[in-house]
């Protein structure tokens, strides 16, 4: 089994933006700089706030497993990501129709081995609004071991980066129509699989 590292600095900033809003990152935005314990940078201040709100060790480091474990738990339980989607719908192995056997997951997966890409989620939200009906996520973000356990999955799958979603509209439109609408609303690639439409975003942007 693969042993996963902590999220990258950019991914940590994406998580903080989900919790506190993208404007909370300040003018620097997604610059990949977390700051150092004790300083007053926007990112360091947000990490300190997150630690305080969740009874974690404040300024114990830049970002450790204590922070990430709590962050993954919050994402698994569900925080609002867009008008129509919650993080509880996208976790590794917990999306509809997936098997969540612990032995299938990489070490430290915790259902959120990577943070969902904001731009990809905006594409999904626009697709949802264009269809005017619910989109069910059948596979969201994946850890390497879980991804490898799925038949036909690629070792370079964009699910590993939080940039791809397998989904359907529960009969509101065909898989083919879902693909076409998704591509019209920002997704850069997709295909129709066996009982799902794969939508992914490969462009720039966090």
TrEMBL record:
<dbReference type="Pfam" id="PF08291">
    <property type="entry name" value="Peptidase_M15_3"/>
</dbReference>
<feature type="domain" description="Peptidase M15A C-terminal">
    <location>
        <begin position="117"/>
        <end position="198"/>
    </location>
</feature>
<protein>
    <submittedName>
        <fullName>Peptidase M15</fullName>
    </submittedName>
</protein>
<dbReference type="InterPro" id="IPR013230">
    <property type="entry name" value="Peptidase_M15A_C"/>
</dbReference>
<dbReference type="InterPro" id="IPR009045">
    <property type="entry name" value="Zn_M74/Hedgehog-like"/>
</dbReference>
């Amino acid at each position: 089994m693969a042993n996963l590292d902590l999220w990258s600095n950019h991914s940590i900033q994406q998580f903080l933006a989900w919790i506190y809003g993208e404007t909370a990152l300040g003018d620097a935005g997604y610059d990949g700089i977390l700051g150092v314990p004790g300083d007053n940078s926007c990112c360091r201040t947000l990490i300190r706030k997150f630690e305080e709100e969740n009874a974690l060790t404040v300024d114990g480091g830049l970002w450790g497993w204590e922070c990430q474990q709590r962050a993954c738990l919050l994402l698994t339980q569900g925080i609002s990501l867009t008008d129509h989607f919650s993080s509880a719908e996208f976790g590794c192995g917990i999306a509809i129709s997936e098997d969540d056997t612990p032995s299938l997951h990489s070490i430290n997966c915790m259902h959120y081995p990577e943070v969902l890409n904001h731009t990809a989620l905006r594409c999904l939200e626009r697709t949802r609004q264009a269809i005017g009906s619910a989109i069910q996520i059948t596979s969201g973000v994946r850890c390497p071991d879980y991804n490898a356990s799925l038949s036909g999955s690629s070792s370079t799958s964009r699910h590993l980066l939080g940039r791809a979603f397998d989904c359907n509209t529960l009969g509101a439109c065909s898989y083919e129509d879902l693909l076409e609408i998704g591509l019209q609303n920002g997704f850069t690639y997709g295909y129709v699989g066996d009982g799902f439409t794969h939508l992914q975003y490969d462009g720039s942007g966090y």
